[in-house]
Amino acid sequence: MIIDLAPNFFLHGGQLINQSDKKNKSQSDLYLLNVESLTWKRFFVFDQPTARDQHTLTKINNEYYIYGGNIAPENLLLDEMWCLSLANVPWASKQMELPGIVWEKI
Q: Quick one: how far is CA 91 from the chain centroid?
């Protein structure tokens, strides 16, 4: 899932190949790419959605909602919705990890 909040793009979830067993594995990380400076940051999150890929994203006002997805390599389908709020993110922070995002299971 990619969120466009110019000049930033957010990347959540997806799959990586596990080098030890060569199987795809779902991810739950949330990263930010500033396209002007070409720098990446990672969000520091305690409570977040289950690792997933193939999920959908909808923006309503200033919140983002993800629904569904798949857990690899088990091929488990997810039937849950989460809301992402970016209202408390300290955008000017020079840290590599950013606090302040809030995921809420709906």
A: 17
